[in-house]
Specification:
Elements (H helix, E strand, L loop, with lengths): L8 H26 L13 H4 L5 H42 L3
InterPro entries: Ribonucl_Kappa (IPR056552), RNase_K (IPR026770)
Keywords: Membrane, Transmembrane, Transmembrane helix
Protein name: Ribonuclease, RNase K a
Length: about 100
């Protein structure tokens, strides 16, 4: 029977810890970007063209903020998937410890 175990116990635990941290950090960044936090203006990829449109310039910047926030939420969802995979690997490694060969 084929085993689904492809990570060792240390790599699986490391992946789980990094995934938890990534989800927390990226979810918080997504929240701050979608609330248009002024501190994060340096991380918004706007150009001079976005600023020249006059009355719609602020709306263009807000749309870019929202886009970056949604990208952070998507990355957090990917980290949730990787965390689930790492959790499964941790469980499989613990089960392997109890098997008698």
């Amino acid at each position: 029977m084929a085993s689904l175990l492809f990570c060792g116990p240390k790599l699986a635990a490391c992946g789980l810890v990094l995934s938890i941290w990534g989800v927390i950090m990226l979810a918080m960044l997504g929240i701050f970007f979608t609330t248009h936090s002024a501190v994060l203006i340096e991380d918004v990829p706007f150009t001079e063209k976005d600023m020249e449109d006059g009355p719609t310039a602020l709306q263009n910047i807000y749309n870019l903020y929202n886009q970056v926030g949604y990208n952070c939420f998507i990355a957090a969802a990917i980290y949730v998937g990787i965390g689930f995979l790492s959790f499964c690997q941790v469980r499989l490694n613990k089960r392997k410890e109890y098997l008698v060969h």
